[in-house]
Write a structure and sequence with these properties.
The protein is of the alpha+beta class. It folds into three domains: about 170 residues, no CATH class; about 160 residues, Sulfite Oxidase, Chain A, domain 2, CATH 3.90.420; about 100 residues, Sandwich (Immunoglobulin-like), CATH 2.60.40.650. Helix content is about 35%, strand content about 20%. The protein has eleven helices and 18 strands. α2 packs across α4. The longest helix has about 35 residues. The protein is globular. The N terminus is likely disordered. It binds the ligand Nc1nc2c(c(=O)[nH]1)N[C@H]1C(S)=C(S)[C@@H](COP(=O)(O)O)O[C@H]1N2 and molybdenum atom. The site of molybdenum atom has 6 residues, from α11. It comes from Nocardia yunnanensis.
């Protein structure tokens, strides 16, 4: 690449100037998109989620914890600014075509798939226009660069504020919908309140969120209908009110397949939903139907084998409420499918639009990328939430946590100090077999550092897998292990 004999310092300056212009252009584009309810960053983030190779996805999930969405947006923004910084390296005659190509590409990204957004496309065009003209009149000196960068940051912040405000309004509107009438109070489990121990029921705001989008889609409940179609004798179209009439409450833990030992990608809730057996009976599947495909507004699909759902052997639900309220937007408002005991990635979609009865030819979102086609069942797992020594420093430690083995339930939890014998602990009362169960014990520890491990035992005799195993491709294995000093 020719730099026309300029000193490298001059080139670095030009790259820095272009990066500043890039940030300005990104801010302008994002604000244009946000003003119309869309986002450039979110569209590109979804593209990344859809096409990133599995090792990259796994690494990202493992490293980002609960901030995966923020990390994705940041990564996309950094990528865009870096791309802009490289523009001065292009020969002059290619710069306009490159900016046009950039605009066309972001517009195309925003217009693709089920999440398509005209707003994002307009943002892409605006960003490209600002980029091109900004590069023509490149910022003169550090003051100009600073101005561009500050403008870009300010515009990005303004866009974020707009989107958050709209999200908040939508959330309030959703919360006000009265689906359940009276909600039964959640019983106690006899373990009381131990500081640091997870509550029996996870509040929506504390419940993990996992999906391929940057933000939850907004769906108008008045317009929304669930359609049941495909290979059925009776097609059905049901409103939220129709579904609420048939719904019942049930308690269950939901676990992400990425929930490695000790992680918080799981939560226990009192759900409100319609048994799938009832819906399937109404629709009457045809004899060729072998799978229930759950389709969502974000273009994501999860399919489940039909036979065990029809008989109720796998007790699945079409869920419309959580902890006495409609589903929160990030948890799938207005409806989702949930079969307790199956990992979140296999249990049914959030933001459900359609239940389609189909044959085995359908391939799901993650299965196209190498995950197994058949549902993966949650393995028994125990998490240690608390290990606190008494105030006197006597070496007595209270160790407590939660454990699950859905759908049949936890029959025991054991802990082990420094690789000695496994010792049973006290269990809280069981809310439901599919729910998580709290546990607690007191151990005497001699002075020094110790490791404590916990394991769950399922009612079917299944013991938690001790060997470490990463989530891909059959779900994680391994024990939660902590160190304490007495
Ligand atoms: N439409 C849709 N549904 C989805 C997903 C998604 O990306 N899109 N992710 C699944 C995964 S991987 C999990 S673990 C659960 C998480 O549900 P939560 O965010 O309510 O905890 O939703 C599932 N349903
Ligand atoms: Mo997940």
């Amino acid at each position: 690449m020719s730099v026309n004999g300029q000193m490298p310092v001059g080139r670095n300056k030009r790259l820095l100037g272009a990066a500043a212009v890039g940030l300005g252009a990104l801010g302008a584009g994002e604000l244009v998109a946000a003003a119309r309810g869309g986002s450039l960053l979110d569209g590109i983030g979804r593209l990344a989620a859809d096409y990133a190779p599995i090792p990259v996805v796994e690494e990202m999930v493992a490293r980002s914890g609960r901030y995966d969405k923020e990390m994705t947006r940041l990564g996309v923004a950094l990528g865009a600014v870096t791309a802009a910084a490289g523009m001065p390296l292009l020969p002059n005659r290619l710069r306009t075509p490159a900016a046009v190509a950039f605009g066309a590409a972001t517009a195309a990204v925003s217009l693709r798939g089920a999440n398509r957004s005209l707003a994002g496309a307009l943002g892409g065009v605006a960003a490209a226009a600002v980029l091109r003209s900004g590069l023509r009149h490149r910022p003169a000196g550090p003051a100009g660069e600073l101005l561009w960068a500050a403008a870009g940051t300010g515009l990005l912040a303004a866009a974020e504020t707009l989107v958050r405000r709209a999200d908040r309004r939508y959330r309030e509107r959703v919360r006000r919908i009265d689906l359940l009438g009276a909600h039964a109070p959640v019983p106690e489990d006899g373990l009381g309140a131990e500081p640091g121990l997870s509550p029996l029921i996870t509040k929506a705001g504390r419940f993990y969120v996992a999906d391929v989008n940057s933000r939850p889609p907004r769906i108008d409940p008045a317009q929304w209908r669930l359609s049941i179609g495909g290979q059925v004798a009776h097609r059905l179209r049901l409103s939220l009110a129709d579904l609420a009439d048939q719904a019942v409450e049930f308690d269950a833990v939901m676990v992400c397949v990425h929930n490695t030992a000790g992680a918080h990608r799981c939560g226990n809730a009192r759900w409100f939903g319609v048994p799938l057996t009832a819906l399937l009976d109404h629709a009457v599947p045809e004899s060729g139907a072998t799978r229930l495909v759950t389709r969502a507004v974000d273009g994501y699909t999860i399919s489940l084998p039909l036979a065990p759902l029809r008989t109720g052997e796998w007790p699945g639900y079409l869920v419309i409420g959580m902890n006495g309220e409609p589903l929160a937007p990030e948890h799938g408002f207005p409806a989702r499918v949930f079969v307790p005991g199956i990992y979140g990635q296999y249990t049914g979609v959030k933001w459900l639009t359609e239940l389609e009865l189909a044959d085995d030819s359908h391939v799901d979102y993650w299965c196209k990328r190498g995950w197994p086609t058949e549902p993966l069942w949650v393995r028994p797992q125990a998490r240690i939430d608390v290990a606190t020594g008494d105030a006197a420093g006597s070496g007595k430690f209270t160790v407590a946590g939660v454990a699950w083995a859905p759908p049949h339930g936890v029959s025991g939890v054991e802990i082990r100090v420094d690789d000695t014998d496994w010792l049973p602990v006290e269990l809280g009362a069981e809310l439901a077999p599919a729910a998580w169960r709290r546990w607690r014990t007191v151990v005497d520890l001699p002075a020094g550092a110790h490791t404590i491990q916990a394991r769950a035992i399922g009612r079917s005799g299944d013991v938690q897998d001790a060997g470490h195993r990463p989530p891909f491709p059959i779900g994680p294995g391994g024990l939660h292990t902590i160190t304490v000093t007495a």
